[in-house]
Amino acid sequence: MRLKRKVCLLGAPGVGKSSLVRRFVEQQFDEDRQSSIGMEISRSSVELGDISLEMVLWDLDEGSEAWGQYNRSFISGASGLIFVVDATKPRSLDHLLEAQAKGRGFIGSRPAVLIVNKVDLTRDFALTKAQVDAASKLNWQLLRASAKSGDHVDEAFVKLAELMLESRKASA
Predict the structure, then answer these.
(1) Would you call 2 exposed, middle or buried from its count of C-beta atoms within 10 A (0-12, 13-18, 19+)?
(2) Long-range contacts made by residues 136-140, C-beta under 8 angstroms, separation at least 24?
(3) Rounded CA gap, 70 and 87, in Å?
(4) Among residues 9, 106, 118, which one has the least CA distance to residue 61?
């Protein structure tokens, strides 16, 4: 069976949303990548048993979500969400938690993962246990990854695919 689902990436500017997408879709990392301008849409499939799930990945530029204002039309129709924070910048998680609190009504209960990116910079890991605990209380699957090294990137996208399929079965 083939399914196609929209997935939105959300997070502050510079956390590595586009780099994670590029690593997942193309298995590449660009050290000199600049922040996205506008929106990029990419596609990649995840095979889960007899189901091929095509993930249509919507990566919005560094605009409004950095200040806690999600764009409703951007999220509309999404089957899953990927929240991204920078392991070296604790404020990136604070922005995300504030935005989640403000926008809960239209974000809904979609399956979501929280990717703590840039864990390859472990000596600079600045997120506190309290911040990680606060994010965990939101029912997001928390995964540590590195777009640069590729560590755990595929696993994060596969985990979201599994959650989306579970949600689909639960609502059927």
Answers:
(1) exposed
(2) 138/97, 138/100, 138/112, 138/114, 139/109, 139/112, 140/83, 140/112, 140/113, 140/114
(3) 22
(4) 9
- d(C-alpha 131, C-alpha 126), whole Å: 10
CA 77 – CA 89 distance, rounded (Å): 30
Residue 66's closest CA among 93, 42, 87?
Answer: 93
pLDDT in tens, 128-141: 888 888 887 877 88
pLDDT in tens, 4-48: 999 999 888 889 999 999 999 999 998 876 665 678 899 999 999
Residue 66 tokens, joined: 């950095």
Could you give the CA distance from residue 159 to residue 16 in angstroms, rounded to a whole number? 18
E strand segments, 16-130? 39-48, 51-60, 80-86, 112-117
**pTM for the model:** 0.88
Task: Kindly report the backbone phi and psi dihedral angles of residue 137, in degrees, each rounded to the nearest multiple of 5, phi listed first.
Answer: -70, -15
C-alpha 108 chain-centroid distance: 15
**One-letter amino acid identity for 102?**
K
